[in-house]
Amino acid sequence: MLLNLSIKLIIREIRSGYLTSMLVSLTLAITIVSGISLFTDRLEKALDTQTEEFLGGNLKFESNTKKIEPLLKKLDVKDSRFMEMALFASVVFSEEEMQLSSVKAVDNSYPLIGSLELRNAEGVYSTKSNPTSGTIWVDERLQNLLKINFGDEVYIGDKSFIFTDTITYEPDRASGNFSFAPKTIMNMADLESTQIIQPGSRVEYNYLFAGPENEMLYIRNFLEDAKESGDEIEMLGEDTSSLGRAIDRSENFFLLGGLIAVLLSACTISIASQRFTRRHISYVAILKTLGMQTLHIRFLYFLIFFYTTVLTLGFGVFFGWLLQNNFINLMSAYFPTELPPPGFYPLLITCLTAFICQFGFIYPHILKLLSISPMRVLKDDIGLNQGSLSVISAGLLAFYLLLFLYTNQVTLSLIIFLAVIVFSFVGIGSIYLLLGNKNLGLGASGPLNLALSELRRRKLGNSFQIFAFTVAIGLSLITFSASKDLLGSWQNSIPEDSPNNFAINITKEDKGLMELFLEENEIRASSFFPVANSSLSKLENDKEVPIDRNFNITWVNDLPEQNKVLEGNWFSNKNLNGISISDEISERYNLGVGDIVLLKLENKNIKTFVQSIRTVNWDSFSPNFFVIGHPSLFEDIPSTYITSFFIPKEKQESAAELMREFRTVSVFSIEELIKQVKEIIDQVTKALNSILLLTCLSAIFLALSALQDGFSVRKHQSAILRTLGASNSLIKNSALIEFAILGLVSGFLGALMSYAGIYFIETKVFETTANFYPELIVLGPIIGFIIVSGLCFYLINGIVKKSPKELLN
Amino acid sequence: MILSTKNLRKEVSSGNSNLVILEDINLNVEEGESLAITGPSGSGKSTLLGLLAGLDNPSSGYIFLNKIPLHELNEEERARVRKENVAFVFQSFELLPSLTALENVMLPSELKSKKDPESNAKYFLDRVGLKDRQHHYPNQLSGGEQQRVAIARAFACSSKILFADEPTGNLDPKNGKLISDLLFEVNSESDNALVVVTHDHDLAKKCDKTISLKLGKVAE
C-alpha cells in the first residue's frame, strides 16, 4: 500500500511541476560533478600515459658520462627494463649536402615504451625496434635538407650509413637538449666506429627505466646515491611542461566550476525542499488524523526521497557521461591512443555529492514535516515551528562536507565555510537595514509606489531573495572570471607574432651576419643571448656546496620580457653586479639574495653573488634562462648565441635560405607546436564554456526557485488587488520595477562578492596573482537586471493571465 | 437600474463535453435594493456572483452593471469597472495577511488614488467597531473580526453595489447574526445595492428580493 501510495505521490509531484526545480537542480549538479570528475580522471590517466611516452620510460637518468653503466648490473629488480641512449649534436653529410643534426644512438631495447612511426618506400608503419647496425633513420626536415632518398648513403664522423626510414613519430621526445633540431636515430653499436665521441665531446647519456612503481622508486633511490653534479633524475608524475601546467590549471578550474555548481544547486534544493514541506503539511496531518503511524509516514516519505535520489543520480550520471564524452571528443585529436576508462573515484565523488545534498538539504525538511501535529487539521495556524535548528545545522554540516569533498583540506574548507557564514549574516543584515522602514498602506496608487512599498514591506523575505540572487550572480561571475583569466593567460603567452623559430649554436662570427640577414629579410628577432654552460656551487664559509646540475647561462643588461624580479634588484650601473636566478632554482637549492656562489665555466671560475630572484614565464616562446649574469662578469667567456624569431607563412623560404647560409647554426621551427597549443586552447575553451554555461544554468535555477517561493504569496495578493479593481498593468509593472531593483542590487553585490571570491581563490587556493576585471561591476547589475526581471516577467505573466476568480478558488 | 442580466449562460469544458453551470438567468437590481441568491451547493450561486461582479465572463447573454455592458469587456476593462463600482465581501474574508486591518481597509482608496485614505479607513473601522484593533494583522483577529474588517474595506470603496459571497458562512451563529446585521446597517447608510449569496435563511429574509437557483437555473 505504501509503495503504491509513494509512487502515486512522486508521479503527482513531478506532474504538478512543484518538484521540477529540485529535481533539475540536483540532476544538473550531478551531471556537472560526474562529467567533470570522469573527464579529469581520464585526462589525468591519458596524460600519465602520454608523459610516459614523452619521457620514454617511467624514470630517466641523465648524465654527461657513462659512469652508471657498471652500477646498473647491481640493481636487484625483477620486472623492470632499462635502456641506454647517447645524444649529441653532429654534422651529417650526404653526397650533396651537410647539416648539423641532433643524433640519438639507441641500444636494442629501444623504444622502451610506445612505438615509433616510420615511413619507407612502401609507406608508413610502426615499429618497436631500433635501426639495425649500419642503417640510419632521419626526420623529414633533415631528409629534405640533405636531399636524400631511401637507400642513399650518409656519413656521421668516420662511418657511413644507409638511410632506410623517415621518422614521422618517436615516443621519447623529451630526450636531449636539442630535441627540436633535425633528428637522426642510429644504432648504439655503431657509435664507436663513428669516432665522434672523443674525450671532452659534449654528449649526454640517458638511461631509461620502465616497470612497476615500487621498483621505480627503488631504482630512483639507488640512482640518487650515484648521482653527481650535473646529473639529473626525472620521474613520471613530475611533469612541468607548459601543456602539463595548462592542464593542471584547467583541472583546477573544472573543479572550481563543479563546486560552484554544486553549491548553487544546494541552495536551490534547500529552497525547493522548504516549499515541498510547506505543501505537505496538511497531507501529513490528515494521514496522522486518519491513524497512520509516524513510522509508516516516515517510510512513505523515505520512499519518495529514495526515488528522487535514484532518479537524479541516474539521469545525472547519464548526462555527466555524455558531457565528458563531448569533452573527450573535443580533445581526442591530441591523444594518440584511445583514452583509458575512468576509475572508481569519479563515481564515488558523484555519489557522495548526491548523498550529502540529499541528507543535508532535503532529508532534514522531511523529518521536520513528520513532526507536524494532527491538530493542524483543526487549526490552520499550527505550523512547523520545531526543528528549524536541526534543519539549519544539517544544511551547514552538508555545506562544510561538500567544501571538504572538493578541496580535501580541512582548514581551507573551514575558512571558506566561515567566510560564507559571515558574508551571509553581514549581507542579509545590511540589505535588511538598507531597505528601511515601511510606510503606512500598500502604496497601490501607482506601480512605482507599490514596488517601493513592497520592497520595504517584505524586507526580510527580500533580503533573503537578494542574498540568493547575489550568490547566484556572484558565483557565476567567479566562474566567468576564472575562465577568462585562464584563457587570457594562455592566449597572452602565445601572441599572434610569437617566435616560431629558434636558432642555436650561433658563433660570434655568425652573429653579425645573421642579424644582417634577418634585417634584410625583414624578420624581427628577439635579442641574441650569449650562452655558456656552467655548473653552480654555493659558497658557505668559503666551503663549496655543489648544486647538482649544469645550467646554460646568459648575460644581459636588461631584464628579459615576461620575467619579473621578486626579490633583490635587477642589474644597474651604480651597484656591483652579480647574478639573477629563477625562483625555482632559489627554492630548489635554497639560494637567497646575497648568497655567494661559484660559477664553473669551461675556462674560468667566477665567484659572485645572487643579486635577484625572478619569476620566469616558461610558457612563453622566447629563450628563457634559470641563471642570468651581468655582462661585466663574462667579458672574456667564449660563448655561442641563441635567438628566436617569427617567420610569417609567406616568408617560409627565408628559413631554408637561413639554414643553407649558416650551416653550423641549428634552426628549428616550433610552428607545429604553437599550432597544436593554440588548437588545444581552442578546445579547452569550448570545454570551459560548457562548464560556465552549466554553472549559469544552476544559477538561473536558484534565482527561479527563490522567485517562485515568493510568488505563491504574490498570487493571492494579486487576486485580491485585481478583485478590488487593480489593473493587470499595475500588478505587472510594479512587480517588474520591484524585481528590476532587486536584480540590479543583487548584481552589484554579486560583482563585489565575485571580486572578494576571485581574490581569495586566486591568491589562497590557486596561489597565483588575482586578476580583477572592471567590467564585472557593470556586467553584474546588467545580468541581475536581465535574469531577475526576465524570470519575474515569466512568473507574473502566469498570474495575470488567470482571472481573479480562478486565483481565489 | 444598477444591475440587470438577460439570458445569461455559463458553461465550462469538462473532458470532451461542455458542462452547463448557469442557464437563462434574467434578473434586475435597482439602486439601493438588496437581492439574495440562494440554492443548494453546486447550484451555481458563486458562479453567478462572479459573473455579476465582473470577475468572470459569461459564455453568452448580457450583463449590465451601472449601464455598462460587462459581457462586452475584457479583463482589464472589467477591472476598471470593478474599481469604480463594485465592492466585495467573501466567505473566507480574503484580507491581505501582510497588511494591518487599517491598511487592508485603506487598499481600495489607494487603488483609486483618493486623498487621505487613512482617515476614510479609520472611519469605517470605527463604524464596524474595530477602532482599537486597526494595527492588528489578520492572523491576530478572530473570524468575526476579520469579516468586519472585510465589511469596512467593502464600504470604504464608495462603490455602487456590494457583492457578498456567503459572508456568514465561516462564522458561528452569534457572529453570523452580528455580521449580517452590520452589513445591512452600514449598507442602509450608503444607499448601495447589495447582492448576497447565502445559505442563511435569516440573512436572505433581510433582502428586498430573493432568487433561488437549482441546477443552474432560477427555480420557479
What does this protein structure show overall?
The complex is a heterodimer of chains A (809) and B (220). By secondary structure, chain A is of the alpha+beta class. Chain A has 4 domains: 1-55 and 237-408, no CATH class; 77-207, no CATH class; 411-436 and 444-496 and 671-809, no CATH class; 501-670, no CATH class. The radius of gyration of chain A is 34 Å and the shape is elongated. The longest helix of chain A is centred in the last third of the chain and has 53 residues, at 671-723. In chain A, the strands form 2 sheets. Chain A has a 6-stranded mixed β-barrel with strand order 2-3-9-6-8-7. In chain A, strands 13-14-19-16-18-17 form a 6-stranded mixed beta barrel. In chain A, 54% of the residues lie in helices and 18% in strands. The model of chain A has no long low-confidence stretch (mean pLDDT 81). Chain B has 220 residues and is an alpha/beta fold. Chain B has 7 helices and 10 strands. Chain B has a 6-stranded mixed sheet. In chain B, strands 2-1-4-5 form a 4-stranded antiparallel sheet, covered by helices on one side. Chain B starts with a strand and ends with a strand. The model of chain B has no long low-confidence stretch (mean pLDDT 87). Chain A binds chain B through residues 381, 440-446, 457-458, 713, 716-717, 719-730, 803-805, 808, and chain B through 50, 55-57, 75-76, 79-84, 86, 88, 90, 94-96, 98-99, 102-103, 106-108, 110-113, 117-118, 139, 157.
